[in-house]
């Protein structure tokens, strides 16, 4: 199916198209490019112009460039523009403009990707669904997702993230969502904001891009909920709170055979659904998802049924059985809020000894030492039998734990993974969690290798 013709792409970007070509997709990576894709030569760690010839050799319909790269035929199918990233934004803007369906945008300190995937699965059977791949939520990920969006899309789910102030609002204005959901506000990227209130205001800026009479779905139970509500009010949005209170309320979340049986009230309607996970925080986000989908005009009861097909993404809390033990792989990211949720999941599982293997939580700013140390007082920690840890920040948690709960501390995750036999035993229930850059996933890899078990087949 045609996504962009040469003339359409040139009109959208103001560029100069060479040749008559039709693109069926858009790609920024020659490793995964498909025949018919428009290759976008972005500049990151390396300049994408270096890979244009390779992209064309692999069957790319054309390449979006700011110059004709060395070694490429001057008459090759190209779209030449002054600035590739600006042109990608323009292509995304045009993709959004021609789409007549509903757009749902998701942001939050924790749970953006899993919530986006949850919404995508819940919408199955309700038309043509388009969603961001993986964690494509930044200044190139959002326009890329919009540029890839088929014109006849009925529902689009756009993930929007940030690292620094001022990043969310422009991406939301690009996506122009009908519904915007904030999963939660936590101490993530705190060093760039100084205080949790600053993070809340940045998250709340997602409402600046809402279409007229748009819907804001906000967590109801946070100390900064009022800030989010003020941001939504300033944008003229219709507000629905979700959580233990609010118009979208989680009434019950009952663990049962590795799943959670849930009951919620969404706008006065009682809805039952099941999640194939043990993480109670996923149940809370599912209520927000149902509220967002209802606001977008989806069939609420059908969406609730489909939630049972959703699985947590790899590295984000999926529970799997290895040879002799159960593993909660939550190694993709960490901050105090998500670590607390991970510990609660571990505490809620019945069976053998509960073991937490933790890596440093990064980008927390000046209070990082106190935040690491303070995890020793987390309510769920009382149900954890042993805590192993790696990294200089986790040393403070290690020292704050009582001796009976204090396991091995190592300078790095690699060092910890090398002592696997001392970390776990048959029958253990094991949580592995830390910021991605802490490399705590090397412990997960070591556990799987020891069990000779491949990673579960879930979405990245």
From TrEMBL:
InterPro entries recorded for this chain?
A: Mur-like_cat_sf, Mur_ligase_C, Mur_ligase_C_dom_sf, Mur_ligase_cen, Mur_ligase_N, MurCDEF_CellWall_CoF430Synth, MurE/MurF_N, UDP-N-AcMur_synth
Q: Which coarse location class applies to the principal site listed for this UniProt protein?
A: cytoplasm
Report domain Mur ligase C-terminal positions. Answer: 322-435
Q: Please state where this protein is localized.
A: Cytoplasm
Question: Which pathway?
Answer: Cell wall biogenesis; peptidoglycan biosynthesis
Which Gene Ontology terms cover its molecular function? UDP-N-acetylmuramoyl-tripeptide-D-alanyl-D-alanine ligase activity
Tell me which residues make up the Mur ligase N-terminal catalytic domain.
24-69
Q: Which UniProt keywords apply?
A: ATP-binding, Cell cycle, Cell division, Cell shape, Cell wall biogenesis/degradation, Cytoplasm, Ligase, Nucleotide-binding, Peptidoglycan synthesis
Catalyses which reaction(s): D-alanyl-D-alanine + UDP-N-acetyl-alpha-D-muramoyl-L-alanyl-gamma-D-glutamyl-meso-2,6-diaminopimelate + ATP = UDP-N-acetyl-alpha-D-muramoyl-L-alanyl-gamma-D-glutamyl-meso-2,6-diaminopimeloyl-D-alanyl-D-alanine + ADP + phosphate + H(+)
Q: Which domain of life is it from?
A: Bacteria
Q: Which residues form the Mur ligase central domain?
A: 106-292
Pfam families registered for this protein in UniProt: Mur_ligase, Mur_ligase_C, Mur_ligase_M
- What are its E.C. numbers? 6.3.2.10
Q: Identify the enzyme class.
A: ligase
Q: Where does ATP bind?
A: 108-114
Q: Which SUPFAM superfamilies match?
A: MurD-like peptide ligases, catalytic domain, MurD-like peptide ligases, peptide-binding domain, MurE/MurF N-terminal domain
Role noted for this protein: Involved in cell wall formation. Catalyzes the final step in the synthesis of UDP-N-acetylmuramoyl-pentapeptide, the precursor of murein.
What family classification does the UniProt entry report for this protein? Answer: Belongs to the MurCDEF family. MurF subfamily.
Protein name per the record: UDP-N-acetylmuramoyl-tripeptide--D-alanyl-D-alanine ligase
Which species is this UniProt entry from?
Paracoccus fontiphilus
Its encoding gene is what? murF
